[in-house]
Endonuclease/exonuclease/phosphatase domain-containing protein
Amino acid sequence: MKVLSWNLCGLGRAGKLRAVSRLIDIHNIEVCFLLETKIKTCTDSLIFRVWNNSNVNWACNEAEGSRGGMIALWDDTKFQVSSVEYGYGWIGLYGQHMQSGFICAIVGVYAPCSMSEKRNLWKNLCILRHAFPILWLMVGDFNETLNQIDRSSGYLHIKGSSAFRNFLDSCHLIEYQLAGGYFTWFRNCLMSKLDRAFSDESFLLQFSNVMLHRLPREMSDHCPLLVSDSLLESGYRPFKFLDCWLQFPNFKIIIRGFWFDGCTAFPGRFRFLKKLSFVAAQLRRWNKDDFGDQEYMLQVVISQIDDLES
């Protein structure tokens, strides 16, 4: 899974077109969201200047004057889209990730600055989320912060952050930790974390190696975001403990065994971090090889029941 999201603050310049094209090529992108394009009319010729690939399809929200605009692009041989939904501030792609075979939704977001418009956006996305209860990934510029540390000034809009948090909670979405830096928007001495990525727990289970990277800013106020299951050279993969693991029979016995093996591999009182790293690695392997198969087996049983009932 490789998804790129970038608020370009205007796509018209040839330099920005080349910059996007280069990132798509370097990172072998499967789905790309270009935000704040400021383009009124999107054409095939423009798309092929961005992504010169005959397998590429696209959808867009055209700009209103010199404001807004979104373009979603995808390689149909890697992510086969069956349905495209879109509204003010978002484009949703629903289809099959060809490498994994999983059906999922990938939603690109470019939130407006207006508080009332953002509330409407959260409401519409929440309706969308519950209408498509499948594996879910959402990435983009949310134009809102969640904590004081998300702005270098320390300013927090209480009502705005509360509405944003309530939206995420109601949709049961989990935020990805950002590798490569903290802030994603820069202007003079001001810095903010406005660009983010979220997924549901099912997506985390099936794409357990996925990370969120902040790429160099280059030609925009915003840094590009890369959702990728391939480690970059400077990438550190943070460990995520999933609550659903606790429902697995004898999970406490399993993790106790991993800890015992870690103590055996790294004996001594002052190797605590090495033991924790060992346990984390074992849990990742167990999640992929054993626990992850529970979803597959469930689908097999459901399919068998459906065959019997029909």
